[in-house]
Design brief:
Elements (H helix, E strand, L loop, with lengths): L14 H6 L6 E3 L2 E3 L5 E4 L2 H4 L8 H13 L11 H11 L6 E7 L2 H18 L7 E5 L8 H6 L3 H4 L9 E4 L5 H4 L15 H9 L4 E6 L15 H12 L2 E5 L13 H5 L5 E4 L11 E6 H7 L19 H17 L4 H14 L7 E7 L2 E6 L8 H12 L2 E2 L1 E3 L2 E4 L7 H18 L1
Length: 435
């Protein structure tokens, strides 16, 4: 294939390195991609944590084509279309209890910034405008818009944009290799890390803090599972001090951990919840923010002709995205995909932990259909060992994800036990080869 690669500035990519040896995908079906040369590659990452139901599912493809022919676009400001209302109502049937209002966006990044704006605005409309500080967490990832970048805790994602990231603070991360290495499911130690919020409250005063945002399971920083009791303690502290709790479920939403959402899996309900990725099975960009009714209702005051929340996007609730999302929900329901990770958890756990003891492996962790293998960093070249494992797996026909010194696995929910074992076997060979 004769392509001019120079015109495209690629996201989150070492552009010069990639363009010397491109890794191109041209077709996808079910559990697999194909390269332009016809080589089959098993997708062990659900695309980018988003293709939960597998690729090119007929019901979803047909729904998008049908909707494009019927109505390609409808304006969302002061207008509406039936699919947006139908989708919002359908989502409430699988949402955590109490999260019963939905605001549509176009991505996880937009969902995060929307949730942050709603949190700040809520504090103002309820009479506490001094609550303007937002708290994130070290090693957190909340997309790449300016609010999400500010609240994120991955240094490399922040350093070029530092001057715009004031007015926030961060909890310490929960990764504790000394006590929790090779945990299965939630680590036993670390609930007390939530008490770091009390340190920030003492520093800034609770009356200045609007919200805390965390990923229930931190995905992009290497699949960090919450310690037992951690999320419950965080919820307790937020309630005690009048602080809103936001869960970023862009990765964990729509069946990844074995329940529709991590809030249900862990038994902790936030005040707002951000989603995207699996909402449309990755087919059409879309996100959604779930909001407790009391937050929504606080805005419903003043003249009924006034705009209550001056926020939204040209493509909020886009007809094609709504059609894709509704068909995705149908596919999930028909095949029991939102809970299938619970069934496959033992096979996933066994496959991942079979890699313990390989050269330079310092941790293996898993939950639902998420697994991670962490390596000791190579001296003078942090992240390089994991990237070389990623390349070796790619050459062997399995797509995994390298993030720092960790390889993360998050296959589509349609994966078989045999395919989980094949992923682990490919990783074993690659890790041994790279060592």
């Amino acid at each position: 294939m004769d392509l001019n690669l120079d015109a495209l500035w690629m996201p989150f990519t070492a552009n010069r390195d990639f363009k010397r040896s491109p890794r191109l995908l041209s077709k996808a079906q079910g559990m697999h991609y194909w390269t332009p040369e016809g080589r089959q590659v098993l997708d062990a990452t659900s695309g980018l944590w988003c293709v939960n139901a597998g690729h090119a599912r007929p019901r979803i493809v047909e729904a998008i084509a049908r909707q494009a022919a019927e109505m390609d676009y409808a304006p969302p400001f002061q207008m509406g279309h039936p699919l947006a209302f139908e989708l919002a109502d359908r989502l409430l049937h699988i949402a955590p209890a109490g999260l019963d209002r939905v605001f549509f966006t176009n991505s996880g990044s937009e969902s995060v910034d929307t949730a942050l704006k709603i949190a700040l605005a809520f504090q103002r409309v309820r009479g506490e405008p001094q609550r303007t500080r937002l708290i994130g967490r070290e090693r957190g990832y909340h997309g790449v818009n300016i609010g999400g970048t500010a609240l994120g805790g991955i240094g490399g994602n922040r350093k070029l944009f530092g001057s715009a990231l004031s007015g926030v603070d961060h909890l310490r991360h929960t990764h504790d290799l000394a006590r929790n290495a090779f945990s299965r499911g939630q680590p036993a130690h670390g609930a007390e890390f939530a008490d770091d919020l009390e340190r920030l409250i003492a520093l800034h005063d609770a009356s200045t803090i609007a919200a805390v945002i965390v990923e229930p399971m931190a995905g992009s920083t290497g699949a960090l599972m919450p310690p037992q009791g951690y999320l419950q303690r965080l919820r307790q502290l937020c309630d005690q001090h009048g602080i809103l709790l936001i869960f970023d479920e862009v990765i964990t939403g729509f069946g990844r951990l074995g329940a529709p959402f991590a809030a249900q899996h862990y038994g902790v309900i936030p005040d707002l919840m951000t989603t995207a990725k699996g909402l449309t099975n990755g087919c059409v960009p879309m996100g959604a923010v779930f909001v407790k009714r009391e937050l929504h209702d606080a805005f419903m005051q003043g003249p009924p002709t006034a705009i209550e929340l001056p926020h939204g996007y040209t493509y909020s609730g886009h007809p094609l995205a709504c059609a894709a999302a509704l068909a995705t929900l149908d596919t999930h329901a028909e095949e029991g995909l939102l809970t299938r990770a619970t069934e496959l958890h033992p096979a996933m756990e066994a496959a991942m932990h079979s890699l313990a003891g390989l050269p330079h492996v310092i941790d293996v962790r898993n939950t639902g259909l998420v697994g991670a293998v962490e390596f000791a960093p190579r001296e003078g070249a942090p992240g390089r060992r994991a990237f070389e494992v990623f390349l070796a797996c790619w050459e062997a026909g399995v797509l995994v994800r390298a993030t720092g010194d960790t390889i993360a696995i998050s296959p589509p929910l349609i994966v078989s036990e045999a395919q989980l074992q094949h992923i682990a076997d490919t990783l074993r060979t690659a890790i041994t080869q790279v060592a």
